């Protein structure tokens, strides 16, 4: 999987720098599904103390632009990122601790069908985030 991501970087004309490797590894080895730029920065700094937050942020945006990452805008106003390697999914987000869980279930086909019947609008894409409380925070 890591090699596939590196191949995509090269194919898009980008060098595989140590910082980019460290960012990709931060996602691959994280227990969390979603990471903020600050969390990626803290993880990368463990092995590369000299890396600036702005460097991490620029690389996250580049990885987003070429399709390696997805951005998830949570209610707290802080952008989170995830690797774009999983099948279509949505997120269950805890309002207390902020943990996000992936769920493969998607109710949107039926909703999109109803939207097309009720309006002249044609849905193309969607993101669904469901907020509530996880087992730990109930």
UniProtKB/TrEMBL annotation:
Q: Which UniProt keywords apply?
A: DNA-binding, Iron, Metal-binding, Repressor, Transcription, Transcription regulation, Zinc
Q: Which one GO biological process term can you cite for this protein?
A: negative regulation of DNA-templated transcription
Q: Which residues bind Fe cation?
A: 88, 109, 126
A molecular function (GO) term: transcription cis-regulatory region binding
What Pfam families does the record point to? FUR (PF01475)
Q: Which cofactor does it need?
A: Mn(2+); Fe(2+); Zn(2+)
Note whether Phosphoprotein occurs among the keywords: no
Highest taxon in the source lineage? Bacteria
Per UniProt, Zn(2+) binds at 94, 97, 134, 137
Cofactor detail note? Binds 1 Mn(2+) or Fe(2+) ion per subunit.
| SUPFAM superfamilies, alphabetized | Winged helix' DNA-binding domain (SSF46785)
Question: Which family does the record claim for this protein?
Answer: Belongs to the Fur family.
**Under what name is this protein listed?**
Fur family transcriptional regulator, zinc uptake regulator
Species for this entry: Natronincola peptidivorans
């Amino acid at each position: 999987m890591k090699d596939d991501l590196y191949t995509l970087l090269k194919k898009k004309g980008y060098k595989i720098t140590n910082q980019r490797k460290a960012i990709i590894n931060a996602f691959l080895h994280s227990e969390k599904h979603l990471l903020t730029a600050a969390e990626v920065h803290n993880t990368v700094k463990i092995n590369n103390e000299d890396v600036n937050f702005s460097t991490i942020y620029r690389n996250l945006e580049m990885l987003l632009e070429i399709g390696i990452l997805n951005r998830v805008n949570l209610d707290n106003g802080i952008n989170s990122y995830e690797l774009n390697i999983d099948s279509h999914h949505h997120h269950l987000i805890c309002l207390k601790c902020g943990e996000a869980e992936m769920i493969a279930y998607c109710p949107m086909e039926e909703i999109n069908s109803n939207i097309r019947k009720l309006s002249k609008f044609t849905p193309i894409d969607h993101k669904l985030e469901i907020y509530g409380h996880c087992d730990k925070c109930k």
